[in-house]
Amino acid sequence: MNTQTLSIGGMTCDHCARTVEEALNGLPGVVAQVSFHERLARVQADGAVTVGQLVRAVEARGFSASVGDGIDGGTRVRGGSGAPHVVVLGSGSAAFAGAIRAAEEGARVTIVESGTLGGTCVNVGCVPSKILIRAAHIAHLQGEHPFEGLARQTPRVERAALVAQQQARVAELREAKYRQILESNPNITLLRGRARFADAHTVVVESGNGGDTTRLAAERVLIATGASPAIPPIAGLAEVPYWTSTEALIAEELPEHLAVIGGSAVAVELAQAFRRLGSEVTVLARRSLLSRWDPDIGSGVLAAFEAEGIRVLTHTVPSAVGYREGRFELATRDGEIVADRLLVAAGRAPNTAGLGLEAAGVATTAGGTITVDASLRTSAPHIYAAGDCTDQPQYVYVAAAGGTRAGVNMTGGEATLDLSVVPEVVFTDPQVAVVGLSESAAEAQGIAAESRTLTLDNVPRALANFDTRGFIKLVAAREGGRLLGAHVLAPEGGEVIQAAALAIRHRMSVDDLANELFAYLTMVEGLKLCAQTFTHDVKQLSCCAG
After folding, report:
1. What are phi and psi of 84, to 5 degrees?
2. pLDDT tens profile 75-105
3. CB distance 78 to 64 below 8 Å
4. Residue 450: how many other CB atoms lie within 10 Å
5. Least buried of 220, 321, 464, 544, by fewest C-beta within 10 Å?
């Protein structure tokens, strides 16, 4: 019998060690013991077994093996490279953040993508939607600005030209932030095709045209396949040519009447944008608008929408949808609604079907969402997930942060993603911006809380803008006054909320906030003024009272 010591790369737990041990002991004439803590395999084998066979057996399970007395002294056999292999499924923000970080840490990275490079945000999400919203805001101001002495006029909208400009910027960012990064990083390879797990350490990639099939042995995998618009089970809906946000963002003609199914962020953002570009709009929300936040938020957005002529039907879901002679017919409890376009914006569902997650031992919810821990690890210890396919908040900055931390952890580091303070913004006008707890959420956690609300007619910046729609609400602990949450409905509210997030992160009290210096005239000064209302009547203070 020959004795051989192999250094094993890619193990993160005792389960990995047992997997390597089983692979080695599966060879005829081999008896192996593997130590996760030492990262070593001690092997006894008869003379017919070669070192190459031992190494290939380990690599077939997705780990690396080198020959020598220890981790640092061994010589890698596989391909001459000591870099671990990381396979990334998807090419959006989470995927690229993870791939870049893993490559920086020395990994060889293969990105597998079957669709458009760049994922949701740059292609069909954040970038094009915010361009559309900004253009609609400019159109709205032409006819609805508050200043006397400036002529108001009905905007002339050339939707095709707006789309062309929008999509040119999308292509520019996709080129700069995705394709060029691939070309400039020799440690990252793009493989085109549809991926699925054959087992926990093998990813099979099939090209879309029925061509080649590639099998990848991976020491680590990052699942970052994102999400797609969810389609509710409404009778007839599957048979009609509805829009999702993807089609709405690139539509070159404005509908005369747009019906929108949904009441959350995507629905309200696009509903207001199309109204401001000239369409009649009806929103059908299953509950109230933006129902997962403080009720005052939804009420404030509803008031703003009604002022702009948007019809909103709350607690309404069509019982059936039909399509006849180019018109959509929606049956509701309030009667039939007829529109020439229908936008379905009822949430997003994870892109995990067909990945073979069961074969990899990756647990999901009933809806296919992947569950991860604070280290972005799935139920399979060598497989990580980040972004909209997981049970974490569906925001691109959460996805990117998760991808980066997964990249650290896949290469031996220890990073966690703290989601205790996550600012959220909805780009309506006025904007919705929320961070931290509501009073009810605080009470549910056993924290006695109180709140104060400051309407914007008490904020000098809003008065100077002649636009006092909205409010700022702060939630604080009754004992000690620690800031727990901020709920903002205000023009440019998204520019306000990060200051509140930092205050919560650093456990500031409302007294601390009230005594901070804030630039005048700024909207964020409203945080200071609202904090002052916990102890003062701000109407009795001078305009910039300290």
Report:
1. -70, 155
2. 222 223 457 899 999 999 999 999 999 999 9
3. yes
4. 15
5. 464
